[in-house]
Design a protein that fits this description.
With 412 residues, the protein is of the alpha/beta class. Among the domains are: 31-164, Rossmann fold; 183-332, Rossmann fold (3-Layer(aba) Sandwich), CATH 3.40.50.720. It has helices spanning 3-17, 22-28, 77-93, 114-128, 147-161, 182-200, 217-228, 251-261, 318-326, 334-337, 340-354, 360-385, 389-408; strands at residues 33-42, 48-59, 65-72, 99-106, 137-141, 209-213, 232-238, 241-244, 271-273, 285-288, 307-309, 330-332. Helix 6 crosses helix 7 (217-228). The protein is globular. The model has no long low-confidence stretch (mean pLDDT 96).
Length: 412
């Protein structure tokens, strides 16, 4: 099943539960706008290489579109459309005044110099600039992009427009108006949602065994904050392999290793296991925080974790989701579990528009309040409709979007 069909299946299932107007469903099944661009890059050796980039604005009924830009060799048009759709449901679910967007460039950023990455980012910005604006579409970091990429996008937009516009992107450096706590926000949100699920289930998070697939920004911070809450990080993985330690790892040490070596390969504590074996460990919580489609029909039956918290976007296929539900495994879906990043991005956008900036404690307070409220709404819907947390999340999102269409109508 393609990513687009996967998204439609989840969407249709939730729409059926709430008797959504079929005419509105027709609109929500399709992206509003998809742009494909060619990006010529003069490399450091003087050769020219042409890359393909995308920007999808899926739906803007609730406000300007919002979504990250990823650099990866496996970026596809279908992936970008699906991720933009997920951003649409995510922003509605946590009640932000945004629609959903996503962008990407097909490239291997590890094989490009910093100067090449800067030129690639700036040219991509120019190619899509007519789609961008603080009240139109606001990019953010994603896979293999950072605050530095956002600084280049902001500067390029500002130079082309003739004035400095810090609210054009989020996830930028603090000196350019970035929000405190933005880098840690998605991982912190994963930890908060995990804590809230344990509360709802009357379980004790302290001592719970956690396995984290993908020790990038999201996975590493989720591990850090969960360990601070008393959970035990017993397994981690990245592109170089996986490590297990039944006594628990120091999240701080693991993060220090990644900061020093760029991966977990240099860490010499714990037992090495094949990377995919991490998914099948007997743990309390599994956090897939890598890429899409990691849990599918062929491996879902092997999963022993009692709870899955989706740190990555679309890590579980619909077939796998059904298998996990039948096994009684709780799955907190991506559109809720990893929404911490866009929640703090909204706070950053508000700060940039107003020129007022908050201390990290205030940002964390807002994030906590928004996520706890959203989780409780999803939990309540899951009980009301007797559905999984994923379907409940889609129901909350669709009901919010449907209400907007009820008042706005369809132009003309």
């Amino acid at each position: 099943m393609s990513l687009i069909e996967m998204n439609k299946k989840y969407l249709r299932s939730a729409a059926d539960k709430i008797n959504l107007d079929p005419n509105l469903l027709k609109i929500l099944e399709r992206p509003m706008r998809v742009l494909e661009v060619s990006i010529p890059l003069v490399k450091d050796n003087g050769e020219v290489e042409v890359f393909t980039g995308y920007r999808c604005q899926y739906n803007d009924a609730r406000g300007p579109t919002k979504g990250g830009v990823r650099y990866h060799p496996n970026v596809t048009k279908d992936e970008i459309i699906t991720l933009a759709a997920l951003m649409t449901w995510k922003c509605a679910l946590v009640d932000l005044p945004y629609g959903g967007a996503k962008g990407g460039i097909i490239c291997d950023p590890t094989k490009l110099s910093e100067k090449e990455l800067e030129r690639l980012t700036r040219r991509y910005t120019v190619e899509i600039i007519h789609l961008l604006g603080p009240h139109i579409d606001i990019p953010a970091p994603d896979v293999f992009t950072t605050s530095k990429n956002m600084a280049w996008i902001m500067d390029t937009f500002s130079m082309m427009k003739g004035y400095t516009e810090p609210s054009i992107v989020t996830g930028k450096p603090e000196v350019l108006g970035g929000s405190k706590g933005r880098k840690e926000a998605t991982g912190r949100g994963v930890a908060i949602v995990t804590r809230e699920l344990f509360k709802a289930l009357n379980k004790n998070l302290r001592g719970a065994k956690v396995a984290v697939q993908g020790f990038g920004n999201v996975g590493s911070h989720a591990a850090l904050f969960l360990s601070q809450m008393g959970a035990k990080i017993v397994a981690v993985s990245d592109i170089t392999g996986a490590l297990v330690n039944e006594d628990g790892f120091s999240a701080q040490e693991l993060i220090g290793c990644v900061e020093k070596y760029g991966c977990l390969e240099g860490y010499n504590k714990g037992k090495k296991i094949p990377r995919d074996e991490l998914l099948y460990l007997d743990v309390d919580v599994l956090i897939p925080a890598a890429l899409e489609n990691q849990i599918h029909s062929e491996n879902a039956g092997k999963i022993k974790a009692k709870i899955i918290i989706e740190g990555a976007n679309a890590p579980t296929t619909p077939e796998a989701n059904e298998l996990l539900s039948k096994k009684g495994i709780y799955v907190v879906p991506d559109i809720l579990a990893n929404s911490g990043g866009v929640i703090v991005s909204h706070l950053e956008w508000v700060q940039a528009l107003s020129g007022l900036y908050w201390e990290e404690e205030e940002v964390i307070k807002h994030l906590e309040k928004k996520l706890v409220k959203s989780f409780k709404e999803v939990w309540k819907k899951s009980k009301e409709f007797n559905v999984s947390l994923r379907e409940a999340s889609y129901i909350v999102a669709l009901q919010r979007i449907a209400e907007v269409y009820h008042y706005r109508g369809i132009f003309p």
